[in-house]
Design a protein that fits this description.
Blueprint lengths: L1 E2 L4 E4 L5 H11 L4 E7 L3 H5 L1 H10 L6 E7 L11 H11 L2 E4 L8 H17 L12 E2 L27
Parallel strand pairs: 2-3, 3-4, 4-5
Antiparallel strand pairs: 1-6
Length: 164
């Protein structure tokens, strides 16, 4: 399985209207997005609602959104508590984790967990893998068998039939 577009990472910055207009086009056809704020800057957290509204307005209603509190390596400069991030995520039905791009802490996990949620939605039939408008494009080795089932392909040719 390949994502049609890379997971969209949106860094919530105050006053970047031109950036917001560009990112709106990335939401269309996306299966997942990472909504990122800086734990050392309260203003980035305060703008999450606006960014989330944009994402939901311009995307598939089933898009997986992960909320990321970045810069967890700067604990001494923290301005937004982990509990606040968790509460925002819970209130809005988002996945949550904190990361550090500087140390790479949890960065890979953020992408993997988002991909797992997308894959689960495929397995549950929420995403129709035959419709590329959902942001999911299957490679030729993972094409569904005749009949269009979205389950495991039953391919016994040694390749993996699973996600990623």
């Amino acid at each position: 399985m390949l994502l049609q577009r890379p997971l969209t990472s949106v860094h919530a910055q105050a006053g970047q209207e031109s950036f917001r207009s560009i990112t709106r086009s990335y939401y269309r056809g996306a299966a997942g997005a990472l909504l990122v704020y800086d734990i050392t800057r309260r203003d980035t957290f305060n703008h999450l609602t606006t960014w989330l509204e944009d994402a939901r307005q311009h995307s598939n209603s089933n898009m997986v959104i992960m909320l990321i509190g970045n810069k967890s390596d700067l604990e001494g400069r923290r301005d937004v508590s982990k509990e606040e991030g968790e509460a925002f995520a819970r209130e809005h039905g988002l996945i949550f984790m904190e990361t550090s791009a500087k140390t790479a802490s949890n960065v890979e996990d953020a992408f993997i967990n988002t991909a797992k949620e997308i894959y689960q939605k495929i397995q549950d039939g929420v995403f129709d893998i035959s419709n590329e408008a959902n942001g999911i494009k299957l490679g030729p080795q993972h094409a569904p068998p005749a009949g269009g089932s979205s389950g495991q392909s039953g391919n016994s040719g040694g390749g993996s039939g699973g996600c990623c």
